[in-house]
Specification:
Blueprint lengths: L2 E6 L1 E6 L8 E9 L2 E9 L9 E4 L6 E8 L3 H10 L3 E6 L5 E5 L12
Parallel strand pairs: 4-6
Antiparallel strand pairs: 1-7, 2-3, 3-4, 5-6, 7-8
Length: 114
Amino acid sequence: MSVKTASFEKYKVEYYSRKTSDTEMVRIWLYKGYIDAGNIKFVKDGATLPDNSYATSQVSGVTKVYLWFPLSRFNDVITLLREEKPLEANFDTDTKDGWIGTVGSEAVGEEEGS
C-alpha cells in the first residue's frame, strides 16, 4: 500500500447553484498555508464517483490530494473540517481509496482549542 498524504490547515468552500457539469455540486479547496493542497468534490447522490487522485507540484513539491464524495456526506466532512485539527487528506495509489482524518490520535473527550 502506497499512501500519498496532503496536510492542510485551511479550507475554502464553493457551493454551486448551477454548474455546467450535472454532477459536481460542492468543492472544498484545501490549503497548507497559502499553497493549494488539493480539494474535495461532492457529486449528486447516485452519480458515479470519479476516481480519487493525487499530484505533486513541480514548483513547491507539495503533494495535492483530490477526493470525491456523494453530496450526502457533505455535513460529515464539513463537521470534521470545523471541529478537528490537525487534518490530512490521503490517497492510496493501489486501491484508489481516499479519506480525510485527524493526524495521529487524540485523547477521548478532548476538545479542540482555538
